[in-house]
């Protein structure tokens, strides 16, 4: 399953890149994030996410985030992996930054979600757009001058 889109951010590409590459800052925008830890600085992290369809009794889902190929101020490749029950889920994300004006950046994203479980695919298809919107709305607010 592929999800793609774009958003405009009120900051130049270097500022947006720094924000995306600073876990303390970008983590404040992740919906449902309850905790995170660095496994390897600047490359591997563990996130705990409370999923929007989970009950409050369910523990947060552990997700491994790996930063892949990076081109400072222009692009970042991310890999998220987790397991929902016995089913593995992998999300490959490509973020690309394009300057629009001296203080604006257009961020393009492409997410490829891989899982064999059709039920999980349906849940992700339903909830992903809202979660993505929440992430970018929070990011826009934090980048306001």
Attribute tags:
about 140 residues, Alpha-D-Glucose-1,6-Bisphosphate, Chain A, domain 4, globular
Can you tell me about this structure?
With 145 residues, the protein is an alpha+beta fold. It has a domain at 1-24 and 63-122: START domain (Alpha-D-Glucose-1,6-Bisphosphate, Chain A, domain 4), CATH 3.30.530. The chain has helices spanning 13-20, 23-26, 118-143, and strands at 2-9, 33-40, 44-49, 61-71, 75-84, 87-101, 104-114. A seven-stranded antiparallel β-sheet has the order 1-7-6-5-4-3-2. It is globular, with a radius of gyration of 15 Å.
Describe the protein's topology.
Elements: E1 2-9, H1 13-20, H2 23-26, E2 33-40, E3 44-49, E4 61-71, E5 75-84, E6 87-101, E7 104-114, H3 118-143
Antiparallel strand pairs: 1-7, 2-3, 3-4, 4-5, 5-6, 6-7
Number of strands: 7
Tell me about the largest β-sheet: 7 strands, antiparallel
Shape: globular
Overall CATH class of one domain: Alpha Beta
Structural class of the helices, strands and pairings?
Answer: alpha+beta
Percentage of β-strand residues: over 45%
Spell out the CATH superfamily of one domain: START domain
**Under CATH, the topology of one domain is which?**
Alpha-D-Glucose-1,6-Bisphosphate, Chain A, domain 4
Report the average pLDDT across residues. 93
What sequence of helices (H) and strands (E) makes up the elements?
EHHEEEEEEH
DSSP summary: helix tally: 3
**Poorly predicted segments:** none
Distance between the termini: 36 Å
Instruction: Compute the CA-based radius of gyration.
Output: 15 Å
Known CATH architecture of one domain: 2-Layer Sandwich
- Which percent bin holds the helix content? 25-40%
Strand order within the widest beta sheet = 1-7-6-5-4-3-2
């Amino acid at each position: 399953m592929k999800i793609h889109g774009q958003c405009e951010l009120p900051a130049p590409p270097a500022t947006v890149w720094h924000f995306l590459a600073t876990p303390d800052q970008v983590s404040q925008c992740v919906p449902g994030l309850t905790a995170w830890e660095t496994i390897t600085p600047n490359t591997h992290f563990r996130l705990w996410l409370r999923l929007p369809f989970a009950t409050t009794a369910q523990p947060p889902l552990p997700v491994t985030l790996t930063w892949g190929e990076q081109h400072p101020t222009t692009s970042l490749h991310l890999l998220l992996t987790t397991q929902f029950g016995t089913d593995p889920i992998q999300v490959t994300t490509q973020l690309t930054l394009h300057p629009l004006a001296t203080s604006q950046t257009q961020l393009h994203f492409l997410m490829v979600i891989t899982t064999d479980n059709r039920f999980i695919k349906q849940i992700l298809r339903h909830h992903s757009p809202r979660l993505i919107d929440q992430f970018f709305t929070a990011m826009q607010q934090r980048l306001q001058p």
